[in-house]
Amino acid sequence: MSWKTRKFEYVNGYKVVETDGPTFRVYDGSDQVGEDFPYSGEAAAYAKSLPPRDTPISRNLG
What percent of the chain has pLDDT over 90? Predict the structure, then answer.
């Protein structure tokens, strides 16, 4: 069994993470928002439909 690094991206300030399956999840901090999505595009579209959040980079600049 090999180790797979989880891939992620930030969309609208939410973290979209690829997990096993592949399954994609949307996180607000450490809390999952919504359901598991079979495609990254669906997870990204869901994140875009949520109220915008500050990006992690801008939160660390202050």
Answer: 66
